[in-house]
Design a protein that fits this description.
This protein is α/β, with parallel strands linked by helices and about 500 residues long. It has 15 helices and 24 strands. The chain has two domains: about 280 residues, 3-Layer(aba) Sandwich (Aldehyde Dehydrogenase, Chain A, domain 1), CATH 3.40.605.10; about 190 residues, 3-Layer(aba) Sandwich (Aldehyde Dehydrogenase, Chain A, domain 2). The relative contact order is 0.14. Bound molecules: NADPH dihydro-nicotinamide-adenine-dinucleotide phosphate (NDP).
């Protein structure tokens, strides 16, 4: 891994124009290990300029050729799986086994998926038949879908390469050029991807990556007049700022934002499986997945048994050095984030919550990790569903369990937050499963499963969890402009 990262602009690796750099910290040790460009509007302007110049030729490139380059990039990611997984683990604090089995393979899968999707698209056509007196008018309408220009892609720190590729792949596949701004907290695999993109043979200016802070580089991208499309994944407050900033230039904006996902467990569920998956849903990636089940609602008759077994599962998670193969629970992304998570636990205590396990910084697993940001898997009970820890996104290894007495009560609690990303329902009653799916205010409902993903399905959130959808045809539509052509004959 390099110790100084560069921006990729027009297929050249460039230092920031300001000469300023930021430190990248390894969360497992708390120590800086690389530096990244602290880019300014000047770097963003240069990247947008390169992307704008590259756009006409890339848009005119046959889909089969765009597809070939994206598939080549996917192959290079596969080739470098081990190197990328190690880098992702060091940069984020996530267990290397998770990076190797999910983050990096999924990035390659994203490129492959959209590389093949563009070879199988269809467009609508409508025949119009207006019978006029002596002059029957007939016309054929067809829809052209054209790329929109330069796409600005902004991604967060929890699944760095996975979520960056989820945006880059459809943007480039459909013929847009891109300027991406990865999270300043986790820039390493984005830098490595820029090297692979050059190796894959993408023409200059098609894919540009500019590192730096959201408030400077990110904000410059979002307000740039030559960027008509913004795809953002991150926190709800940042999403709000981006929606405001993009309004002046009427940008098309997709926002994938935070969640406070309810996980509903009914007494008729397969309890063994529900508990196993609830542990996974609460604590995967140290609870730093937007889809995590951070509120568990359990039917009262099984509540106490469920909590006991959930606590056993939480305590059994192997906390360790993220680079250790057997680690299940690594470090949180940053010291600030650890403080935020702990502040919510302290607030929960003050509000009368009972900490059933965890609730504190975890002991460092070895000397190397002495300064790392480890936090214990934490289960809390006894909190009013309306209180702040139940309503606000904590985004850490903290889950709160609440009993319910009826289906109506479960729905009322589940839908009581401003968020609407994902829900889980555990039941063996088919009617209940369908009814819950209809009544839950969330854009994704998993019945008897969690994080079972199919790249063709619409992905996103409702309410304050986002605007628009990614995935499959939704992404192909988002990155293209529909144009109706009407021909009279
Ligand atoms: P942030 O909103 O803090 O940051 C996301 C990205 O936006 C980063 O690249 C950040 O840069 C950048 N940014 C910050 N401010 C601005 C701005 N004013 N203009 C443009 N860009 C800006 O989110 P986090 O990185 O903290 O990620 C965690 C959040 O992401 C959680 O809320 C989580 O729920 C959400 N998320 C949602 C998902 C979904 O699909 N719905 C999936 C994964 C995460 P920098 O890091 O440099 O500040």
């Amino acid at each position: 891994m390099p110790d100084t990262l560069a921006n990729l602009i027009n297929n050249r690796f460039e230092p920031p124009r300001s000469g300023q750099y930021l430190d990248t910290i390894e969360p497992a040790t708390g120590k800086p290990y690389a530096r990244l460009p602290d880019s300014s509007a000047d770097d963003i302007n240069a990247a947008v300029d390169a992307a704008k110049r590259a756009f006409p030729a890339w848009a005119a490139t046959p889909p089969a050729e765009r597809s070939r380059l994206l598939l080549r990039l996917a192959d290079l990611i596969d080739r470098d799986l081990e190197r990328l997984a190690r880098a992702e683990s060091i940069d984020t604090g996530k267990p290397i086994s998770l990076a190797r089995s999910v983050d990096i393979p999924r990035a390659a899968a994203n490129f492959r998926f959209f590389a093949s999707a563009i070879l199988h698209t269809e467009s609508a056509s409508h025949q119009t038949n207006l019978a006029g007196a002596g002059d029957p008018q007939r016309a054929i309408n067809y829809t052209l879908r054209q790329p929109r220009g330069v796409a600005g892609l902004i991604s967060p720190w929890n699944l760095p390469l996975y979520l960056l590729s989820w945006k880059l792949a459809p943007a480039l596949a459909t013929g847009n050029t891109a300027v991406a701004k990865p999270s300043e907290v986790t820039p390493m695999t984005a830098h490595m991807l820029s090297e692979l993109a050059v190796e894959a043979g993408f023409p200059p200016g098609v894919l540009n990556i500019v590192h730096g802070r959201g408030a400077s580089a990110g904000a410059a991208l979002v307000s740039h007049p030559d960027v008509p499309t913004i795809s953002f994944t991150g926190g709800t407050e940042t999403g709000r700022a981006i929606a405001h900033a993009g309004a002046d230039t009427f940008k098309r904006i997709s926002l994938e934002l935070g969640g406070k996902n309810p996980n509903l467990v009914f007494a008729d569920a397969d309890l063994e499986r529900a508990i196993l998956e609830s542990v996974r849903a609460a604590f995967t990636n140290q609870g730093q997945v937007c889809l995590c089940g951070s509120r568990i609602l359990v039917e009262r008759s099984i509540h106490d048994e469920f909590v006991d077994r959930l606590v056993q599962g939480a305590k059994a998670r192997r906390i360790g050095d993220p680079l250790d193969e057997s680690t299940e629970h690594g470090a949180l992304a940053s010291e600030d984030h650890l403080k935020k998570v702990h502040a919510y636990v302290e607030l929960a205590k003050r509000l009368g919550g009972q900490i059933r396990c965890g609730g504190a910084r975890a002991q460092a697993p070895n000397d190397r990790c002495a300064g790392g940001y480890f936090y214990e898997p934490t289960v809390i009970t006894g909190l009013d569903p309306a209180c702040r820890p139940q309503q606000e996104e904590i985004f850490g290894p903290v889950t709160i369990v609440t009993p319910f007495g009826s289906d109506d009560e479960a729905i009322a609690i589940a839908n009581s937050t401003p968020f609407g990303l994902a829900s889980m329902v555990w039941t063996n009653n088919l009617t209940r499963a369908h009814t819950m799916a209809e009544r839950l205010d969330s854009a994704i409902v998993w019945i008897n499963c969690w994080m079972l993903r199919d790249l063709r399905t619409p992905f996103g959130g409702m309410k304050h969890s986002g605007l628009g959808r990614e995935g499959g045809n939704e992404a192909l539509r988002f990155f293209t402009e529909p144009k109706n052509v009407c021909i009279r004959y």
